[in-house]
Amino acid sequence: MVASNYYWFNQTYFSALKKQYTPENNTELRIGYFIKENIPENAIFIAWGNNWSSSLAYFSQRKSFTVLTFYKQYQAMAVQPEKFIGNETLGAIVFCPENAKLPLNTLALWAMQHPTWHTTQINNCYVLHKIKHISS
């Protein structure tokens, strides 16, 4: 039994343990670092398409609202995301369409209505955010 477990662990899981994860080879890490660098510490972000994972919040060191596909107001939140965060400041919206059950044009319409926001594509995900102002 021990030999079998050792064999299958080496065949299946050991390579994941040896792999070095960097923003260049990991989408979640890259998005997290991008958010950390581009939105204020007191702002939060909303994420669609990241399921139950808290990885984006962890890597970005920001509060987040990860919208699950079975959330009752899933579609409504995409139309007016700022309405669902109370008194918090919305700093970014993350949208990964392959896991989100939401058409990309829903958030594209929101972005068009907010011209001070910009869209950055990170691998197959999109991050809507305000450009950080540099104080003189």
Which labels suit this protein?
136 residues, alpha/beta, 6 helices, 5 strands, elongated
What does this 3D model show about the protein?
- With 136 residues, this protein is an alpha/beta fold.
- The protein is 37% helix and 22% strand.
- The protein is built from 6 helices and 5 strands; from the N terminus they run αααβαβαβαββ.
- It has a 5-stranded mixed beta sheet, sandwiched between helices.
- The longest helix has 12 residues.
- The radius of gyration is 18 Å and the shape is elongated.
- The termini are far apart.
- The mean pLDDT is 86.
How does the SSE layout of this entry go?
Blueprint lengths: L1 H11 L1 H5 L8 H12 L4 E6 L6 H6 L2 E5 L6 H6 L9 E7 L8 H10 L3 E6 L2 E6 L6
Assign the structural class, choosing from mainly alpha, mainly beta, alpha/beta, alpha+beta, or little secondary structure.
alpha/beta
- Overall average pLDDT: 86
DSSP strand tally = 5
Instruction: Describe the main β-sheet briefly.
Output: 5 strands, mixed
Strands of the biggest beta sheet: in what spatial order? 2-1-3-5-4
Order of helices and strands: HHHEHEHEHEE
Poorly predicted runs are none
Our estimate of the beta-strand percent is: 15-25%
- The number of helical runs is 6
Portion of residues within helices: 25-40%
Radius of gyration: 18 Å
Distance N terminus to C terminus? 66 Å
The backbone outline, from C-alpha atoms, is elongated
